[in-house]
Design goal:
The chain has 122 residues and is α+β, with helices and mostly antiparallel strands. Helix content is 19%, strand content 40%. The protein has a single domain (2-121), classed as Hypothetical protein (Archaeosine Trna-guanine Transglycosylase, Chain: A, domain 4), CATH 2.30.130. The chain has three helices and six strands. It has a six-stranded mixed beta sheet.
């Protein structure tokens, strides 16, 4: 199963350039995830690429940060601000990012609305 995730341009570029090998979320997916399709949020509003998910970690924010910080692509402050007041953190371990030669619109992948969180794709 693939998911479409809205990601800010800075983080999307770090994923596509393999400087960020973990993507963090607050909700565990309901299905096994094979790939993340990267939708860059406004003002870009385009699908720039995809990345393979090789593992999903779930634990307290402290445990997740300690396991992933060297490849997080973000600061510790940013991480803990994102997970403020949460007792669970999710980290997708990423591998083999692919930047599309031509960015795609949401309509080109049969999505008619900008996602607020993950969208499952066939």
């Amino acid at each position: 199963m693939n998911i479409l995730l809205p990601i800010h341009l800075y983080h999307a570029e770090n994923i596509l350039n393999c400087r960020k090998t973990f993507e963090y979320r607050k909700v565990y997916p309901k299905q096994k995830i094979d790939k993340i399709i990267i939708y860059v949020t406004a003002p870009v509003k385009l699908v720039l690429g995809e990345v393979t998910v090789i593992d999903i970690l779930a634990d307290t924010p402290e445990v997740i940060w300690n396991k992933t910080k060297k490849s997080s692509g973000i600061s510790e402050d940013f991480f803990y601000t994102y997970f403020r007041n949460k007792n669970k953190a999710i980290a997708y371990r990423l591998w083999k990012a692919t930047r599309y030669t031509e960015p795609k619109t949401l309509l080109e992948i049969d999505i008619s609305y900008p996602p607020q969180s993950m969208v499952y794709l066939p």
